[in-house]
Structure formats: C-alpha cells, structure tokens
Amino acid sequence: MQKRPVEVVVISDLHLGTYACRAKEFATYLRSISPRLLILNGDIMDGWQFSKHYFPAAHIQVIQEIFQLLANGTRIIYITGNHDEALRRYTDLHLGNFQLMDKVVIEINGKMTWIFHGDVFDHTSKGQAKFWGKLGSNGYAMLLGFNKLVNKLLRFAGREKASLSRKVMEQFHKRVVKINEFETMIAELAIEKKYDCVICGHIHQPQKRIFSNDKGTVTYLNSGDWVEHMTALEYYDQDWHLYTYDAGVMKPEKTTITRLKPDVVTNEIAIYLHSLL
Predict the structure, then answer these.
(1) What 8-state DSSP symbol labels residue 42?
(2) pLDDT value at position 68?
(3) Which residues contact 8 (CB under 8 A, 6 or more apart)?
C-alpha cells in the first residue's frame, strides 16, 4: 500500500480493548499514511471496559502499527482521556519520539493550536456521574454487539445496514453533554486564550467549524472516533482536513461558520476552566 505523506494526524476515541473498536479499519488507515506527527488524543485504550479476556489480534496489530510509525521516525504524542485516565500518573513521560501528555499546544505554520481530549468539559466524567457514564458505556458496548447481529440478518435479507448504536449515542450526548454547548464553550475559551485552532475529541462528533465573536476567531476541530464514524484530522497544504475512512478512501467535509453570541462564557467560568486545564 502506497503511503500518503501528511504533516500532522490527530485521532481520538479508538477504545482499544472493547467490542466497539474498529481496530481492523484503523490499522489499515495507519498503514496508508506517513505522518511527521501523530497525536493520539485520548481514549485510545479503554480502561473502563478493558478485559484481559478480550484483546484480539486486530487490536494488537494497531499497537504494532503505532510502534512501526515510531520506528520510521514519526513523532507521537499520546494525550490522555477519561477512559485511559490511569495513564495520567505518567504525564510528561518522554521516550525518544514518544510523549505522554494531558494537553499540548503546538505551532503549525505560525498558528497556535491547542489540543486536549475534552473530558474536563463533560460533567459525566466527574464524581458520581462518572459511575453512570461507565454504566452507559457498558450498555453501549452491548448495543453494538446486538447491532452487529441485526446487520448480519439485514445483509442476509438484502437490506441496508442500520446503526441503532449511533442513534442511541447521538441522543445520549445531546441530553448529557449538549454538543453545541460543549463546542461553543471550548471555542469561547480558545478565543480568550488567543489560540488560532482548538482540537478535542471525547464526544464522538467529528467536526470542523469556525467560531467568531467580538474578541476574535478560532477554528474548532473534533477528530470524532473509531467506533462509529472512523474519522481523523489531517493537516496538509497549510490547512486542517476532516476525513472519513471508507474502504481506504478518505472524504473531506465542508467547514461551517458560526457567529458566537457575546458573553456565552463569562470571564469567571473561563478562568475556572483555564485552571482545570
């Protein structure tokens, strides 16, 4: 397979060690690219659902592909998320071209880009809500298994595939995380901090949007996931591109522009969130 040269690649929410993980597709994707920098933006390993009884060959292959990129000279930054939060005790670990971080700010062609997983903005990752988040995550994994069985029956009957799990996950995040508020809050804070771009994951919603208010403009990007959407962010030709994996073919998405209302996030909230990050 011929590799595509890419300056920077950001992926998140792979959830290795779960039935939901699209490990085969992700391994194929890794074999198709040759990035200078690969950022694994959280929830790569799933500590919430991890079981020593389930870690198939395809998941091991993903790890091997990542190590192969390292061996080929790719710099890799692993940013921890809530599902792999156990790794946060090793934050700032440096091993050759590999770094383990909680967040990172990088300059790309003169533009400051702020990258973090995003769970700090989600109350389902904190306190008692974390328990319910884990419970919902386990139920979602069971639903994915049921969804696969349904799709096998649909294919046998000559019908199109259905995604019950995607519908449930979209409804869950709309109620609990409130995606638009999540995106707006992050964009407001990024403008306050004077970043040009902000990248996160966590909510499994691939996105590229430009937010603006009286204080400035920021490009908000979300790398989506490798559970349902199979998406990645790639930087080349001096711009970020959102791609979707489809049998080895990547499809670019259009950018939407959103005008922010004044004072969506107050200075007090911005200062508090800044202290968390």
Answers:
(1) S
(2) 96
(3) 35, 36, 37, 38, 39, 106, 108, 233, 234, 235
Domain that includes residue 234, residue range:
4-276
3 state DSSP class of 114: strand
* pLDDT score of 174: 53
Q: How far apart are CA 13 and CA 201, in angstroms?
A: 7
C-alpha gyration radius of the chain: 18
Low-confidence stretches of the chain (pLDDT < 50) are 124-137, 176-177, 250, 252, 263-277
Q: Is 231 exposed, middle or buried (0-12, 13-18, 19+ CB in 10 A)?
A: buried
The torsion angles phi and psi of 264, rounded to 5 degrees, stand at -65, -40
Amino acid at residue number 138: N
CATH number of 116's domain: 3.60.21.10
Among 209, 213, 43, which residue's Cα sits nearest to residue 133?
43
**For residues 7, 39, 276 and 268, what is the CA-based torsion angle, rounded to 10 degrees?**
30
Residue 201's closest CA among 117, 81, 79? 117
What pLDDT is stored for residue 10 in this prediction? 99
pTM: predicted TM-score of the whole model, two decimal places:
0.75
Cα separation of the two ends of the chain? 40
CA dist list (Å): 181 to 46, 108, 184, 199: 25, 27, 5, 15
Q: How many domains does the chain have?
A: 1
The runs of H, that is alpha helices, within the chain are 23-31, 57-71, 127-156, 164-176, 179-192, 267-276
